Amino acid sequence: MEERLQKLIASAGICSRRAAEAMITAGRVQINGRTAQLGEKADLLRDTVMVDGRVVGRQTEYVYVMLNKPRGYVTTLSDEKGRATVADLTRDVGERVFPVGRLDLQSEGLLLMTNDGALMQKLIHPSFEVSKTYAVIVAGEISGALQRLRTIRDLDGEPIRPAQVELLRQGKETAEMLITIHEGKNRQIRRMCQQCGLSVKRLCRIAEHSLILGDLPVGKWRYLTVDEISALTGKEL
Q1: Cβ neighbours of 67 (radius 10 Å)
Q2: Class of residue 108 by CB neighbours under 10 A (exposed 0-12, middle 13-18, buried 19+)
């Protein structure tokens, strides 16, 4: 049965209704992976409600999944335009898992998904500067562009850390590079390349934090190993 969020949170013994309202207003409460708004309702049998990254109302085993996201899929659990989502590819995981960060519609590759809200908040917070490596195919004049990519410190008025850029292959019309960044700004690599006169033809994330995509087939997922989970969370399992 649907109830107002502040009532659900108070009923779970987390705090009073008034304190729960303050938490919602402060953006500390999420419904199904998105920030909740004051006045919303939820059903704990159907919805996942989290306060400060912790699931409300039920104990659940944490699940950590690596997905090789294909192009054409939206990195959300649902889409108002009816487009395919990464949730469509992970329905058989057994638990509702949420994407950690984003890959835009035409990007592909490694996407971590989990129901561990605390880890999710840690990995996406800018202060942790999680490294992400992409295999990028570009078109345009590559001469001089590599050094420009390495020296970008500002992206449309936002400061960014310098990227590591390695040229893998250069053809007549395209070039393939490895680019490692430490932020997760919207379409960051595409915007960086555009700033240097390059057009991105393919963008695939192949590594994030301590995770490596490897030979996981496109559109498939797998559970993380015990060692991978320990490296991510910093806890021995």
Answers
A1: 26
A2: buried
Q: Quote the strand ranges of the chain, DSSP E.
A: 3-4, 29-31, 34-35, 41-42, 49-51, 54-55, 64-69, 98-99, 108-114, 132-139, 154-155, 158-159, 164-170, 174-181, 199-208, 211-212, 221-223
What percent of the chain has pLDDT above 90? 55
Per-residue tokens: 139: 């078109």
Task: For tokens 């559970």, name the residue.
Answer: 223
Question: How many other CB atoms are there within 10 angstroms of residue 147's CB atom?
Answer: 10
How many whole angstroms separate alpha carbon 14 and alpha carbon 24? 13
Q: What is the mean pLDDT of the chain?
A: 89
Query: SS3 for 69?
Result: strand
Q: What is the pLDDT of residues 29-63, one digit of tens each?
A: 999 889 999 989 988 778 888 888 888 875 557 89
Of the candidates 49, 182, 178, the one whose C-alpha atom is nearest the C-alpha of residue 124 is 182
pTM equals 0.75
User: Which residues does the annotation mark as catalytic?
Assistant: 104
**pLDDT value of position 236:** 57
C-beta separation of 135 from 178 below 8 A: yes
Neighbour count for residue 195 (Cβ, 10 Å): 15
Distances (CA, A) of 178 to 2, 70, 108: 48, 19, 14
- As a whole number of angstroms, the distance between CA 202 and CA 115 comes to 29
CA angle in degrees (0–180, nearest 5) for 237-65-191: 120
